[in-house]
Design goal:
- This protein has 30 helices and 18 strands.
- The longest helix has 18 residues, at 269-286.
- The protein is globular, with a radius of gyration of 25 Å.
- It starts with a strand and ends in a 6-residue tail after the last helix.
């Protein structure tokens, strides 16, 4: 796990790489390095920051005369595999013909190393970075399809005079860039790019509107910074240094089976066996590490499955040396003091089943308001709700307990239809294909299992079947009507500036029906690749890297994802149960109370209570930023009117968290000096975790 950065500039203006590298130090505090290169001659020069790891002797970066160079790559390293200087980056191969900076993990690196060694390749290090270089030397860009992992990297091919940049299938690891003329710059985080003096510093109104009104973010390559874009997941970029030309290409897409079932009577037990084997092997690969490993545990089905399977692998196969695990697997759980949303009784069942070491933390509203600026700074762009803050606390807790790698259950809901919102399109698909009676039966089964919550979701969906123009009319005459896609957290029309609404009118009234030409399977794939998971992966990456941690996500092993999408929907939703295949496959591994758990909370927080704890800070924030800048987004007098509300009315204001996030984000990234903003990184790294 690392932070990468780079600049291509024919004029040789490469000095900003030092600041770009420094802005991402939290991603890799163990080591740093640079390579300056010339595309015309292939000449190169290594350099290092002041904190280059011991045993790597490099000239200081400030001593390098950049004249004659037009490319530079920078790295910040969090050492996970091969902790020796042999793992230093930028790393070279074939006598300096290939150079790479890399962020992530190639989990099947041992298997690829053996395959490449049989082809005559040799290796000087014991990690996965050198495997990327050898794989590219052997297979070119086709090497990507052989990688099982999470990755973003930039590889300089001196012979072909090109820069090859790529991102993993699901975009678990980030890659941002901007281009101005023939100047091209990239980094792992937007704050790294902003350290370049030519980086665009303009808010992106389109992204801001989607966030405030529609509840969407990270759903396109566009970011909240106009002119800074994200390399899409499952894409690679080739920059021809000789011609100054750039192209972006997709390299992976899963096939989708839209069928409800396969038409056969009965059930195929081999399907469940194969699913369990794939999930277990995904976890086995993600336990490979040369540093301490632990697991996130919420008490939900996904994280509980990961912990139980990982425990068996750690005890029976000892896939990780015992000194990196301890006597028991370490689990990390965020609890709620509000009993109705506290999942501790479920997470503790897993601890009792596995004998794992339980580490607990209680996030609270007072601490949130003390460190909210650091939280907003590290996330790079605004976040949806306070539900991302418990994850921030879990990462802090794990860091304080000496763990560097965490397994997590992210992605299970998107591939296995774990959210309640998937029931309505499933029932609708049944109605289209099998008629009203079959749909009514499916709806009754879902309500029987999910209870009142699922019934309400289905009823809300029925109300949205009105013609779109009728929905649009109702939203204009009834202020309480929610905009489709807002999820109850978007702002109302009266809160937004008329000009802002007018500029985005077309975006606002695009129908959001929840229907896809591929039915529910298409919706799941869309949520996996566009509308839901991408933002959750950003939150996970920034929250973990703020505390110099690596998180690994077994449910996003591409083999498992491809297999699930090959199956009909009946293996995901059956008899009213979600995640059917996971429940069946692990019914003997999980505690029964979790395997057949009906409720789903999904990282709940007492958001109103936390907002109420910050009413003083909120009023001050609204007063300080009642400015022309914010008037571009919020209606005239809206911020002043909100300040005058009683506490209970203030915290119940629609979209309040989004407004606070946007205001703070805008202030940190557009009004403050870069050094002042960068100072917000230090508290996150150094703060001692609260006692569990």
């Amino acid at each position: 796990m690392c932070g990468l950065s780079g600049i291509i500039d024919p004029t040789g203006r490469l000095r900003p790489i030092s600041d770009m590298n420094r802005a991402q130090r939290h991603r890799g505090p163990d080591d740093g390095g640079f390579i300056f290169g010339s595309q015309a001659t292939g000449r190169w020069q290594l350099a290092g920051p002041a904190d280059t790891m011991g045993g790597v002797n490099l000239p200081p970066v400030d001593a390098i005369d950049t004249a004659g160079y037009d490319l530079v790559l920078g790295s910040r390293r969090l050492a996970i595999l091969d902790l020796s200087p042999a793992g230093h980056m930028p790393m070279s191969y074939q006598d300096g013909r290939l150079w790479v900076v890399f962020n992530g993990e190639i989990y099947n690196y041992r298997e690829l190393r053996a395959e490449l060694a049989a082809c005559g390749y040799t290796f000087a290090s014991g990690g996965d970075t050198e495997v990327i270089l050898a794989a590219y030397a052997e297979w070119g860009v086709d090497c990507l399809s052989r990688f099982n992992g999470m990755f973003a990297f930039a590889l300089w091919d001196t012979g072909r005079r090109r820069l090859f940049c790529a991102r993993d299938r699901f975009g678990i690891k980030p890659f941002y860039y901007f281009r101005q003329g023939r100047t091209f710059a990239f980094a792992s985080e937007i704050k790294g790019l902003l350290a370049h003096p030519n980086a665009p510093r303009r808010p992106n109104d389109r992204a801001i509107f989607d966030y405030l009104s529609l509840g969407k973010s990270d759903h396109t390559e566009q970011t909240f910074f106009d002119g800074i874009v994200s390399l899409p997941a499952a894409h690679f970029l080739i920059y021809d240094l000789a011609e100054g030309e750039m192209g972006v290409h997709r390299w992976w897409r899963a096939d989708i089976n839209p069928a409800i079932d396969d038409g056969r009577a009965g059930d195929d037990p081999t399907v469940y066996d194969r699913f369990g084997e794939l999930l277990e092997d995904a976890i086995r690969l993600r336990l490979r590490s040369d540093v301490p490993v632990g697991s996130c545990l919420s008490g939900g089905l996904d994280s509980s499955s990961v912990v139980c399977l990982a425990n068996r692998l750690l005890l029976e196969e000892e896939v990780v040396p015992r000194h990196l695990v301890g006597e028991h697997q370490k689990t990390f759980t965020a609890r709620n003091r509000e009993e109705e949303i506290d999942e501790y009784r479920y997470s503790h069942l897993v601890v009792e089943r596995t004998g794992a070491e339980e580490n607990l933390i209680f996030p609270d509203g007072e601490t949130l308001w003390r460190e909210i600026e650091s939280f907003v700074y590290h996330l790079d762009e605004p976040v949806d709700s306070t539900s991302q803050y418990p994850q921030w606390n879990v990462m802090r807790l794990a860091s304080g307990r000496g763990v560097t790698v965490l397994l997590d259950g992210q992605g299970g809901d998107e591939i296995l239809a774990g959210y309640y919102a998937y029931y309505p399109p499933y029932v609708s698909q049944i109605q289209r294909e099998r008629g009203l009676l079959a749909a009514a039966w499916a709806g009754w089964q879902a309500s029987r299992i999910g209870g009142p919550t699922v019934r309400n979701v289905l009823l809300d969906h029925l109300s949205q079947q009105l013609p779109w123009r009728v929905q649009k009319l109702l939203s204009r005459v009834r202020s309480e009507a929610e905009l489709p896609g807002g999820g109850g957290t978007g702002l109302k029309e009266w809160q937004l500036a008329p000009d802002f609404l007018a500029r985005n009118a077309e975006r606002r009234w695009q129908p959001f029906t929840g229907v896809d030409e591929s039915g529910l399977a298409g919706i799941l794939y869309r949520d996996l690749t566009e509308t839901n998971l991408p933002k959750l992966l950003r939150y996970e990456d920034r929250n973990s890297m703020a505390f110099s941690l690596e998180t690994r996500l077994p449910f996003l092993d591409y083999r498992l994802v491809e297999r699930v999408f090959e199956l009909p929907l009946s293996y995901r939703l059956r008899n009213g149960w979600s995640k059917w295949i996971l429940r069946r496959a692990l019914s003997d591994v999980l505690p029964a109370e979790i395997a057949w758990r009906r409720s789903k909370l999904g990282f709940p927080t007492p958001e109103l209570n936390w907002l109420r704890a910050g009413t003083g800070a909120i009023r001050q924030l609204l007063a300080e930023h009642d400015s022309p800048e914010m008037a571009a987004y919020f209606g005239s007098g809206v911020l002043a009117e909100m300040r005058g509300r009683p506490d209970d009315e203030l915290v119940a204001t629609p979209g309040l968290w989004r407004m606070i996030n946007l205001i703070l984000w805008h202030d940190i990234y557009f009004n403050r000096a870069p050094s002042e903003a960068a100072a917000l990184a230090q508290p996150a790294r150094d703060r001692i975790p609260a006692a569990g």
